[in-house]
Each structure stands twice: as structure tokens, then as C-alpha cells.
């Protein structure tokens, strides 16, 4: 099954009718496998290019320079992690062949707190974080329409406490990944409500389809990969699946990507919404606190 493409260009004027049509299209796309390719989502492409530029500049630094900004803990979820420091699939024999710079709740960190490689780096990341925040707010509004809840139901549960921007660099491998028995990112599901993934023309992302086959996901310029995470699967009683995906390393070819994770505030209780519960049927998932689930998943990936 192919991943659906959704174009939000017609939402420049957000009439009620257009919102309903867009909500139906997003709903139908995410129901298939929890993924869609979104265009005209309100993401500033010039700003996105600056984020990729800052990412390349940072990851090109010497190791001892990058390690001045080391990741502290899963509870903080902020800072640099080098190669093979994270295992998104803990069952694999080798940790992920990637390096990352993770920025949870980044607006809470000032210029001079020692967490930022440069003032310019921070300014670009904060601006892009805010841009993604706005793009996700529209998707949350569209999903609220289908969920039969108030327009700001999802948005008001995402203050930024667990909303995270992450830069990823997959260096070129010298051998085929099968020979190295290693993935750029092991098979995993995302933890929260929605993820935006920005990738350039270097492929590598694979999604497990309903028949058990891995699909390669390529994007056109201006498209962003959007997928639902574990907590949205629970809210929707499985209507929007949280689907396994992974990144395959490329021999002699490096890859950069940028992920924006829209995860609910820690105190949020995730319970199946009534609109997704068939009459007389029990929910597939018991209630859970968002923070507990997110922390448990983060801790499991660090060996």
C-alpha cells in the first residue's frame, strides 16, 4: 500500500467547508498506515534550508567540540548524542549508526545556558520550532474535527513541555548495512501524537505496511512526512496506527533529516475518545499518562 499525498494549499482560506474536506482527507490518509506525505503545510522552506545548514555545520565539528553539548539524560532529552549511543530497536545487536542533536522544550532554554553551539544556531532552531508548532496546530485542528472534540482539544495539551525538535545525521557507511548488521535507526514507533519529518533527496526511510513489507519513502521538494505516534493510536482506539519505521544506512552516502515530535504534556491522561469507540465495544487501550509512556520509551532506547 502506498503512502497517501495530501495537499493543504486550499486551506489558505479556512472556510468551514474546506476544513471539513481537509479533515476527511487527513483522516483517510492516516487511517491507512499512520503515514502521509503533506505539502503546503505552512512550513517556511527558506527557514528549513537554514536548519539543514546549521545541522551540517554542527555535525561537521570535531568530536571533542560536539561533546561539549552532550545529552544529559532521557528525562532532560536535550543535547548531542554520538554514533551508537541510542538503540531505537533495543533487540538489535548494534546500536543505531547516527548522531543527533535533540531539543526538547527548547524555548525554555536561554542563549547563555551552555546548551547551545552558538547564538545563531539557537535562533534558527527556535524560529523553526515555532513554525512547526503552527503547522502541527492546523493538523491538530483537523484531527479534532474527526474526533468530535473542541477545535483546540489537542493543541491545548501540547504546551511544548514534551514537544521536541531533533537534528539527525547518518554518516556514510563503508560497507553494506546488511554486512554490518546495523541500521541507521532501528525499527520503532514514535511515542506521541504527531511527527513531522523533513528529509532531503537521500532516501533511507522505510515504513512497514499492513502486509508486512517495508516500503521505501521518498519525498518531493516541499513535502513533509507526517505520522501518528503511540499516544494518537491510543486516543483513536487504533484508527490511526503507530506504525513501525526505520532508516537504512547507505554505503558511501551520508543522510541528514530533521524531526519535530509533537508530544502531549506529561500530565495528560490519554484515554480513548468516544468518537472512536463503537457502541457496546470495550476500548483497546487503558488510560495512560503521557509523560510516563514517553519516558519509558526514551529510557528503553539508551543502553
Helix content: 25-40%
Instruction: Give the overall average pLDDT.
Output: 93
Quickly count the helices: 7
> CATH superfamily assignment?
B-lactam Antibiotic, Isopenicillin N Synthase, Chain
Indicate the structural class.
alpha+beta
Rg of Cα set: 19 Å
| Poorly predicted segments | none
The CATH topology is given as Jelly Rolls
| Strand order, sheet with most strands | 1-2-10-7-12-5-4-3
Counting structural domains, the number is 1
- CATH class, named Mainly Beta
- SSE pattern: EHEHHEEHEHEEEEEHEEEEH
How far apart, in Å, are the first and last alpha carbons?
34 Å
**Strand coverage percent:** 15-25%
What characterizes the major β-sheet? 8 strands, mixed
Instruction: Give the CATH architecture.
Output: Sandwich
The total beta strand count reads 14
Describe what you observe in this structure.
The protein is an alpha+beta fold and about 300 residues long. The protein has a single domain, classed as B-lactam Antibiotic, Isopenicillin N Synthase, Chain (Jelly Rolls), CATH 2.60.120.330. The protein has 7 helices and 14 strands. The strands form 3 sheets. Strands 1-2-10-7-12-5-4-3 form an 8-stranded mixed beta sheet. The model has no long low-confidence stretch (mean pLDDT about 95).
What structural keywords apply?
single chain; 303 residues; alpha+beta; 4-stranded antiparallel beta sheet; 7 helices
Amino acid at each position: 500500500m502506498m503512502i497517501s499525498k495530501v495537499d493543504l494549499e486550499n486551506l489558505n482560506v479556512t472556510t468551514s467547508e474546506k476544513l471539513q474536506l481537509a479533515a476527511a482527507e487527513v483522516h483517510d490518509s492516516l487511517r491507512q498506515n499512520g503515514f502521509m506525505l503533506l505539502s503546503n503545510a505552512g512550513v517556511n522552506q527558506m527557514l528549513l534550508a537554514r536548519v539543514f545548514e546549521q545541522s551540517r555545520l554542527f555535525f561537521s565539528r570535531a568530536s571533542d567540540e560536539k561533546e561539549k553539548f552532550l545529552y544529559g539524560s532521557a528525562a532532560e532529552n536535550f543535547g548531542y548524542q554520538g554514533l551508537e549511543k541510542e538503540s531505537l530497536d533495543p533487540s538489535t545487536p548494534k546500536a543505531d549508526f547516527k548522531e543527533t542533536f535533540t531539543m526538547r522544550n527548547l524555548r525554555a532554554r536561554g542563549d547563555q545556558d551552555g546548551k547551545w553551539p552558538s547564538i545563531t544556531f539557537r535562533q534558527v532552531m527556535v524560529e523553526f520550532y515555532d513554525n512547526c508548532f503552527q503547522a502541527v496546530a492546523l493538523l491538530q485542528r483537523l484531527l479534532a474535527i474527526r474526533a468530535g472534540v473542541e477545535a483546540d482539544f489537542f493543541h491545548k495539551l501540547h504546551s511544548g513541555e514534551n514537544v521536541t525538535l531533533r537534528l539527525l545525521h547518518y554518516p556514510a557507511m563503508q560497507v553494506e548495512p546488511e554486512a554490518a548488521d546495523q541500521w541507521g535507526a532501528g525499527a520503532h514507533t514514535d511515542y506521541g501524537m504527531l511527527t513531522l519529518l523533513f528529509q532531503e533527496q537521500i532516501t533511507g526511510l522505510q515504513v512497514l505496511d499492513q502486509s508486512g513489507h517495508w516500503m521505501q519513502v521518498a519525498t518531493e521538494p516541499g513535502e513533509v512526512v507526517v505520522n501518528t505516534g503511540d499516544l494518537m493510536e491510543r486516543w483513536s482506539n487504533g484508527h490511526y496506527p503507530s506504525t513501525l519505521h526505520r532508516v537504512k544506512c547507505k554505503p558511501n552516502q551520508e543522510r541528514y533529516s530533521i524531526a519535530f515530535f509533537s508530544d502531549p504534556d506529561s500530565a495528560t491522561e490519554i484515554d480513548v475518545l468516544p468518537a472512536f469507540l463503537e457502541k457496546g465495544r470495550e476500548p483497546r487501550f487503558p488510560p495512560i499518562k503521557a509523560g510516563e509512556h514517553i519516558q519509558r520509551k526514551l529510557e528503553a532506547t539508551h543502553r
